[in-house]
Amino acid sequence: MNSHEAVKKEVREPLFHIAKRDGIVWWKSWLIRLCAILIAFLLCGLLCVVMLRQNPLKMYASMFAGVFGTSRRIWNFLQETAILLCVSLAVTPAFRMKFWNIGAEGQVLIGGLTATACMFYLGGAGVPGPVIILVSVPLSILASIVWAVIPAICKAFWNTNETLFTLMMNYIAMSLVNFFIKIWVPTGTGNLPPLETGRFPVIGGQKSILTIIIVAVITIAIWIYFKYSKHGYEISVVGESANTARYVGINVKKVIIRTMVLSGAICGIAGLIICQGTNYTVNADIVSNRGFTAIIVSWMGKFNPFYMVLTSILVVFLQKGSSQVLTDFSLTGDGFSDIVTGIVFFFVIGCEFFISYRLIMRGKNGGKTDSGLSFGLWLEEKKRVLREKRGAKRSAQDAVPASEAGQKDALLSEPDGAKESLVHAAQEIDAEGSDGTEKITFANEELPPDTAADAAGARPDEAHEVNGEASPTETEGEDDHV
User: Is 387's pLDDT higher than 90?
Assistant: First the structure.
């Protein structure tokens, strides 16, 4: 088997390559995300026609009316967005550290239970509302911190599974809420009515304004904490590699516990907002799965607090808009709204692949594509094969006479600067084409003359055959295609 057949058998370029992007302009990445959302909504409109036999424009109008139809709906939309963003900010520090805190639901619930307990007992004792607020705020934050630190300590010292640990603590928190509600409301429906004393103050006639202000301050503070503080840097280092963090002197156990203290504190604030600033009561379902939805918001926002503002708006818009579609179209159940939400999430998350990676298809001219990356990778493989063949030839010199070995040494000598190019390392020379132009063959694939001239580099006079003149390589020996 000659060298040409060996190259053809051993090297075969794949149909496409998946390559990681070195970087992408920010506006291009957001354009890709916007296109993904638009495609998702177009697909939802198509499903509306197929499944509901309704005009998709009516569905879009219904979704927007459910969110922005009245001023009350707009304020409710902003309130829900702020609460979801607050819970998302709570889980983000742990996620950046690769601590999978699935227990935000329970941590928020414990904070809300503590705030409601202060309102129930202190309000019943005649304590003024401002005093109740001053007492309930630190107690609620402390209660959520304790609930979050328990799995953090177990993870730091005994390496327990934080995912299962925090998930199980959600159910414990729900059981505690049901237990206290039975104590507070021993008869009747078992639902605690809204409490009047100890409510957060109302600003501008809207209780949502204070919530928005609180969450906006937390968003900016968390962004500064991640970007400019030493603690934020340590969180990133531990998230990249705990062993590397230990090597550079970072106390990983301390970072884990400290980060969960921060997550628990923000969850406590979220519990205060829900139970003392919005609903004025508590029950086992009052968090409404925001602790799990916050995981999606945090991931889609790439753990960036400002990006998470946009993802929170998108998620709440889908929730509110889908609910309005169910009402306007007289649909029962949440099936259609869940489908719409799932499609949008699928496209938004899937588009991140095209932001981080790119597909490089095999070209028609010997694998050369517009970017040239596929061609370069293929040539590198060719170079490797030829280096192995050269090594085999050198090892075979011991079995031939010295004179013949000397001739082979001349043939196997290292090429000069021009022949060190990719063309000399990878190409196989065929006979002159029928049109009288140069042709360079790569495993039964031909490059056009212009590509061959480009590949020859700065010294075209040393290519194997240019403008009809034979190169020194051909005159030395046609049996050795090096």
Answer: no
- Residue 202 makes CB contacts below 8 A (sequence gap 6+) with 209, 210
- Looking at the fold, whether 322 and 383 belong to one and the same domain comes out as no
319 and 405 housed in the same domain: no
Burial of 471 (0-12, 13-18, 19+ CB in 10 A): middle
**pLDDT score at 363:** 59
- Locate 329 and state its tokens: 């179209």
Helix (H) or strand (E) holding 29: helix 26-47
Q: Which domain range does residue 410 map to?
A: 370-476
In total, the chain counts a number of residues equal to 482
d(CA 124, CA 183): 15
* Count: domains in the chain: 2
Backbone φ, ψ for residue 360 (5° rounding): -115, 110
- 195 and 306 in a single domain? The answer is yes
Task: Tell whether 190 and 253 lie within a shared domain.
Answer: yes
Q: Residue 433: count other Cβ atoms within 10 Å of its Cβ.
A: 11
Asked whether residue 33 is domain-assigned, the answer is: no
- Mind listing the pLDDT tens digit for each residue in 75-100? 999 999 999 999 999 999 999 999 99
The kind and range of the H/E element at 465 are strand 465-466
Express as a percent the part of the chain with pLDDT over 70: 75
Asked if residue 309 and residue 400 are part of one domain, the reply reads: no
Same domain, 265 and 174: yes
Q: Is 90 exceeded by the pLDDT of residue 444?
A: no
CATH code, 227: 1.10.3470
Domain endpoint, select from 328, 360, 393: 328
The Cα angle at residue 38 between residues 36 and 43, in degrees rounded to 5: 95
* Residue 317 sits in the same domain as residue 429: no
Terminal alpha carbon distance of the chain: 15
Hey, which residues does 361 pair with through a beta bridge?
Answer: 16
| Token couple for 315 | 């998620």
Q: For residue 225, what are its two tokens? A: 């904490």
pLDDT in tens, 161-212: 999 999 999 999 999 999 999 999 987 777 899 999 999 999 988 989 999 9
Asked whether the whole model's pTM tops 0.85, one would answer no
3-class secondary-structure state, position 446: strand
Q: How far apart are CA 463 and CA 437, in angstroms?
A: 13
Residue showing tokens 């889609």: 300
Residue 149 falls inside a structural domain: yes
Please name every residue paired with 18 in a beta bridge, in sequence order, or none if there are none. Answer: 359
Q: Which residues pair with 203 in a beta bridge?
A: 206
pLDDT digits (tens, 9 = 90+) for 320-378: 998 898 888 888 777 888 888 899 999 998 998 888 888 777 654 444 444 444 455 55
